[in-house]
Amino acid sequence: MGTAEMTQPTTTQAESSPPPLEPLIYELGAPGRVGVSLPKTDVPEAPLPEDLLRSELDLPEVSEIDVVRHFVRLSQLNHAIDTGFYPLGSCTMKYNPKLNEDMARLPGFALAHPLQDPNATQGALALMYTLQQWLAEISGMKAVSLQPAAGAQGEFAGILMIRAYHLANGEAHRTKIIVPDSAHGTNPATTAMAGLQVVEIPSDANGDVDLDKLREVCGEDVAGMMITVPNTLGVFETRIQEIVDIIHGCGGLMYMDGANMNAMLGVAKPADLGFDVMHYNLHKTFSTPHGGGGPGSGPVAVNEKLAPFLPGPIVTVIEEGDDDTPPLYGFTMPEKSIGRVKAFWGNFGMLVRAFAYIAANGAQGLRDVTNHAVLNANYIRARLKDVYPMPFDRMCGHEFVCEGRWKDVEGVHALDISKRLMDYGMHPPTNYFPLIVPEALLIEPTETESKETCDRFIEAMLKIAEEARTNPDLLHEAPHNTPVGRVDDVLAAKQLVLCCRPIPEPEA
Amino acid sequence: MAEWKTPEDLKYTENDEWIRVSGNTARIGLTDYAQDNLSDLVFVELPDVGDTLTKGEVFASVESVKAASDVYAPASGKVIAVNTALDNAPETINSDPYGEGWIVEIELSNPADINDLLDAAAYAKHCASRA
Amino acid sequence: MTYIPHTDADREAMLAAIGVSSMDELFDRVPESLRFPKLDLPDGLSELEVSAEMRGLAAANAHAGDYAIFLGAGAYNHFVPSVVNHILLRGEFYTAYTPYQPELSQGTLQAIFEYQSMMCALTGMEVANASHYDGATSLAEAATLARAHFRGKRTKIILSPGIHPQYRAVARTYHQGNELKFVGDKGSATIPDLIDMLDEDTAMLVVAYPNFFGQIDDFSGLAQAVHDAGALLCMVVDPIALGLFKSPGELGADIVVGEGQPLGIPLSFGGPYLGFFATRKKYVRQIAGRIVGETVDKHGRRAYVMTLRPREQDIRREKATSNICTNQGLMALAACVYMSAMGKHGLRRAAELSYHKAHYAAEQIDALEGYSVDRSKPFFKEFVVTCPRPVAELNEYLFDHWGIIGGYDLGQDYPDRANQMLIAVTEMNTKEEIDTLVEALRDPDAHIGHEHTH
After folding, report:
1. Stated pTM of the model
2. Between A275 and A391, where is the model more confident?
3. What fold, for A99-360?
């Protein structure tokens, strides 16, 4: 047992400290072991350029059973949608249909090379074209690009498009993007990446965009504004059209962060509200799995004005079909495209899953999704509002925010409540976002959770509120029932052990 | 509600830096309020000796596990000393923000820069208003 | 079909608790004139109807399961051990979220830490992040790091024309809003030519290893020259090649990026893929994307956690190193499982097989009348063939008559390479397939007009 010596020791552990949950893969196996079998060489061997070859390859030496047991055991340390409730606000942790996994793995999708002759991949192209159409319809927009690999990339494409639009109109002085202080961190980060300036405006006492402040900053140098609808508090701003009019009035464009589309399907179309561009998060609204941090997919949808600027290539109809023959699809670069944002066409495997989801739901199904997402959120809100301080007591969308603290209870914070919730077998809600609510707990149940699950969550939250008064240490020391307790992230940042392998010295 | 230390002999900025002037030189650091809000610091990015500071501009940054913060120059000048001990012990800013936790020492290029800074009482009020 | 569990009784009870009498009332805040628009979408379907429809779409695609494939150019048909898919299908992995709560996500966190470690070992670097969207965006982020490193004082990025054309396009798209200039890749500059371009304004020089044409360039003197100029050296690499060839770390690289799709990820018509990013520890605070570090929990037990978080968008906002949030987490897991199963010996073997088969194919094709293979430099699994007729024509013929997906038409991206085909050969191509390809190329005119079964 044991592999090559690790000259970079892992965290110094006291004699009495409990053993690791699971060894590192490098700590398993034995010299000479391999986890696969490859065929013999069936061609004459060509001479290898010896002076170019490496002498050491420091990868594990484990057999297949080691690999399987290791990763299965690791998986068992995770909480996931498939194991329990996951009310993470702004993430839309809805059930990930298994059909979608099977569809993505069909050989015609999984084994198709992106650079094959388009004539031989018309099935993939038809799927993409149809999905483009569906996403355009849901948003009310005119054109869609499926290329961005995640919401943040969709945002980036959207802001680059706004910038390119103004440049094309000879308005290079428009360099500012207005962002509310309640915005998701990707919004200002995206703006900076695009070389534009962030102008942050405060929310008013109701958590809505402050219209007076908005009018103040609106001017000739404004390129546009980014907002989320419903907003990051989960509330639909009733004055949304006024906001759009103010920005359009000074010549700016409106960008909608589509992270909260789960509250909008069949209820309102962003284009109808006046938005010029938006992005979708397929891994939120359209059920593609989160994968422990991706892959996602962030298509952008735009109106007529911005359609020529879409990132590309996008799928278009090259030759119209008729009753007997389907159309011929191909890839086209929009005439004033901001360019490619990634290699190839997009996260196709995620597009397949979203396609399956929309095909299964249909128009009525999608409306039901939003109906029940909003029903679940308001139900939990109604049952918790007398126990958890709620900054804004209004009908919410698919999520709502409450404070994780009480005026009459010292020293209990949102973090403690979150950690204690883990002991009840549930993943905590989003903590400390949006920034405008102190000790925020942003709760989003999604539509795939039953009333019983919602009730269990409500009971747990009520119990924790009681524990906060009678036995606060239960919260401070939580979680007690998880594979590890609270971790020392200060130590992690200071000692920075990011790799467990020794690094060979570079050759002279 | 914590009470934050605000030594009388220092001047302060609204961005939570302090400055201690002695003759033509001055020492600069972060206040008790700042370190309390940042919590355990894990990293400090320091300028080099010889660098020029411009009043109101960023010259250093500090990082904790949950935040990163820029440090702004309360006055202009040339860096004559840097507290390199912070490289290995950034938490000194937390434990002794006005003493061992100093960040840089500069030669003032314009002593009048400190005239519009806050005194201890004004700064204490500024902290209380944000609590 | 929907996945909504509510019954009428549930709805009634819940609406009552909220204090409204109908679902529509939940949306009173939405402007009335815009509320409840029609969605012009097909009706929903049952699972078996969706399945039938999608099987039809999938069947309309040619793919590597049915055709011999010699197409690479940034996406490769490499061997994927069956264990990879089985691990990826565990719901605890693929339905989990980003590991922001370490107590509930040690599985994901440790797997990412192991992935980071393996990428460091492979590339000879000291730290790797948890992934970017793909190789192209990893390159774009390397340019971002170079820009931040020099605090905007150096604005030039030298790109070798041997880097994948799409990668260079993406780097330019990413930086269209700032002052960075990308130079060097419009013609056919050699490594010495690129070195001549170095000056005080150069932030970074980027080469590909192997290059887009499959070749291993001679990098002697490159790292020295780049560092003498005070700039950073970035290498875009193929990870399977690193099973055989010296690591970029050994060659003096400062940043290593590339496409991880060959590491256990299917072709999937171009995505999701895996951008890897590795560098020296001194640049760690300027890296974009998630990084997992080792620590202990309050009982002293070894544990893993996302670290250096203040770099990321949710904390640093407009000062973040990048806006990246969701990355390609599950693909990093795939690569981790792949590299564990293949291991030190398996990866070397896959690389050797690719090398030998590619060289066998190259030799046989070079011997054909009218064809000429570029053997001017060492190559790995891809090589360039100058053909006696247009590549598009040849590929149509290969596909229709022989059931072969042919190589990449280089003339699309490089105007002086008309009639040049980039052929990729991996451990998945049998000698029989290669021999058939050679036979097919030998005399197309003899076959056109005759049917072939394959």
Report:
1. 0.94
2. A275
3. Aspartate Aminotransferase; domain 2 (3.40.640)
